[in-house]
Amino acid sequence: SFLNHTAYLSCYFSNSQKTDIKDLRVFWQKGAVEVVHEVYYGQEIHDNLSPKYVNRTKMDMDKWTLQLLNAGIVDEGLYKCIIQHRDKGSPKVIHTSECLLHIIANYSQPEIAWLHTGELKTNKYLNLSCSSSGGYPEPKQMTWLISHENRTYRIMRHMNVSQDAVTKLYNVTSKLNITVPTNTLTNISCLLHLGEQLGSLVSVPLGI
């Protein structure tokens, strides 16, 4: 789920259409102690909920899906759904399922900045940095792309990562130090690798 959006946690089971909700107790929990949501024989009750989930959950009974509103990074983790049926007075567990919630926050487009002043001189060093901010989870790596004369070179440099103590979002920076190219147009870009499923972000190229 995207940060601050609604997360959907499914608890669908095959006999759900034939079962009267008034005969069921459905509850969601995170870990061993946190009660996220509870439906007690057709009625949603809030007495046992962990405080951080109060007024943040809704159960879609038709789809057997829990909606977790305004999902945050602290909500990441494993959720368990347990359904009990009122069987001759004593409840019996008829279904359990688990959902693993991951949160995604979009990084800003990587941006290249000059780290030195004065004019560029041939065969002197060019110092650049590339940065991106406000994303989650932690990215894999940052790659520099240097293109000239129809050829592109990839350069790996150390990526500095910092995490905001409050928001838990990441900021990343990488620095590049190369000799100033001579007599040919050179384009320098920076690529932020977010992971297999999330793809990559690329900066606007810097032409020298």
What does this 3D model show about the protein?
The chain has 208 residues and is mostly beta strands. It has two domains: 7-101, Sandwich (Immunoglobulin-like); 108-207, Immunoglobulins (Immunoglobulin-like). 0% of the residues lie in helices and 53% in strands. It has strands at 7-10, 24-30, 34-40, 43-44, 57-60, 65-68, 77-87, 90-101, 111-114, 125-135, 141-148, 151-156, 159-163, 170-179, 187-195, 199-202, 206-207. Strands 4-3-2-7-8 form a five-stranded antiparallel sheet, with no helix packed on it. Strands 11, 12, 15, 16 and 17 form a five-stranded antiparallel sheet that branches. A hairpin with a 3-residue loop joins strand 15 and strand 16 (199-202). The chain starts with 6 loop residues before the first strand and ends with a strand.
Task: List the defining traits of the structure above.
Immunoglobulin-like, 2 domains, rod-shaped, membrane, 0% helix, mainly beta, 208 residues, immunoglobulin domain
Number of helices: 0
The CATH homologous superfamily of the largest domain is called Immunoglobulins
CATH class annotation of the largest domain: Mainly Beta
Counting DSSP E segments of at least 2 residues, the number of strands comes to: 17
InterPro entries: CD80_C2-set, Ig-like_dom, Ig-like_dom_sf, Ig-like_fold, Ig_V-set, T-cell_Activation_Regulation
Domain Ig-like: 1-97, 110-190
Subcellular location: Cell membrane
Pfam family, one: C2-set_2
